[in-house]
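Subject: design request, 223 residues
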């Protein structure tokens, strides 16, 4: 199911929320109606979670069904919420590029990360998320989580993704990749969309044509 909504009048939903096929973690300041619409669209439980007291949960957290990776300024209480959801399988990123949601793109098959992440960080990500991890870019942009959306059914990329990058992505994530935009032409689809294998939510500025591309790329048509 696809839905358009804004979070506190902000159309960049991916900055404030992160989801897999079971749960969505969302900015605690959002109203109950927003939480209910996310839950209905993605068919998940919704848990409010700030990170380090910040509302930009989606930018600071990456996860699949196996585990989660989060920035190192998360508080102990917030970390406890994640550990409970993932049976303790949570990595606190102690790396220069530790905004996990911006720098880690993941599904249950593969992970693409910022090309300047340290080797030790990459090994730890591999252990926690239980997938192959590769460094790379999308449209030559290093913050790969901002410019793509990956689920277990499809992959939506920045419209200027290179063919070589697209081929790598399809091999790594095990799903078809396509291009699109959000919020009336914005190429940073990872910052604008929250999605899983069941549905997607995006800002109200997203056009009908963009929604069609998102639905097709994430293989949600007919759901």
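Subject: RE: design request

Done. Sequence follows.
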């Amino acid at each position: 199911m696809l839905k358009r909504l804004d979070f506190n009048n902000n159309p960049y939903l991916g900055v404030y929320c992160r989801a897999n096929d079971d749960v969505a973690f969302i900015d605690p300041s959002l109203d109950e109606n927003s939480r209910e619409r996310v839950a209905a669209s993605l068919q998940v439980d919704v848990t409010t979670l700030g990170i380090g007291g910040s509302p930009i949960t989606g930018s600071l957290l990456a996860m699949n069904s196996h585990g989660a990776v989060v920035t190192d300024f998360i508080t102990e209480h917030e970390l406890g919420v994640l550990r409970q959801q993932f049976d303790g399988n949570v990595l606190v990123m102690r790396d220069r590029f530790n905004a996990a949601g911006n720098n880690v793109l993941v599904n249950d098959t593969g992970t693409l990360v910022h090309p300047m992440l340290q080797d030790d960080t990459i090994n730890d990500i591999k252990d926690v998320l239980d997938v192959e991890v590769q460094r790379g870019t999308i449209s030559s942009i290093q913050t790969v989580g901002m410019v793509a959306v990956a689920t277990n059914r499809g992959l939506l990329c920045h419209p200027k993704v290179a063919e070589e990058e697209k081929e790598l992505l399809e091999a790594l994530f095990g799903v078809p990749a396509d291009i699109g935009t959000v919020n009336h032409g914005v190429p940073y689809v990872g910052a604008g969309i929250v999605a899983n294998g069941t549905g997607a939510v995006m800002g109200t500025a997203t056009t009908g044509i963009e929604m069609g591309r998102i639905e097709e790329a994430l293989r949600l048509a007919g759901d």
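The longest helix spans residues 32-42.
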